[in-house]
Amino acid sequence: MKRRTLLKTSLAASLLASTGMLIPGRVMAAYPKTAFQNADATAALTEVFGSSDYAESGDIKIKAPEIAENGAVVPIQVTSSMSDIESISIILSNNPTPFAASFNLHGSIGFVSTRFKMAGTSDVLAIVKAGGKLHATKQEVKVTIGGCGG
Amino acid sequence: MAKKTKIRAKEKNGVVTVKSLMSHPMETGLRKNAKTGKKIPAHYIQEVTAKAGDKTVMEAYWGGAISKNPYLSFQYKGSKGDNLTISWIDNQGKSDTVTAKVK
Hints:
- By secondary structure, chain A is of the alpha+beta class.
- Chain A has helices at 2-22, 33-37, 41-49, and strands at 55-56, 60-63, 67-70, 74-80, 85-92, 99-104, 110-116, 122-130, 133-145.
- Chain B has no helices and 7 strands.
């Protein structure tokens, strides 16, 4: 009798364990909340990608105004013809929280365009993750009136 | 939510260009109310997901640095007649989902 119960409980336990194993964690990292709150760009990058090392690349193009009159609405477009692009991230160095946005592209075309708020004149750093490596390029945007706080 | 998310999606040579406009205040949590001097609580879209049929083609993670009433454009390899669904969720748990056909 005892042996039966033992068998049952151990079976139940192993079942639980195996089902637990079967449910995989989300493969793509979930929303990196702390990275968006991090005031240090390098630390935020390390948090998201596990490394902040990137190679400068000529194959990433940032289309942004040289001078933005209104920092509340700065259109930024990032394009790249690299193959196997996993994600594009945008860092606005002078913002209170520099890590601005990240786009998982699932291997589709390297093209994103959005409007950003910028606290002041700053470098726009576009980071493209392709083939497991980080590539980046930057461009300065001069901002006449800041668009953060106030 | 006052207005719904708008989507325009057009196919050309196997590439679908998607343009969308969301209606959202996008508060950073750093801005102060001019009268009371109190901080306006953060309220911004955190995740935007775009799906063509069942396949996820784009996921965006956003912080408070995206402008008010966000505009988002991206491209993916697709075809005419795709059912494109864009959904977002903000830091206060609100969400919106809109579907459009690729033209």
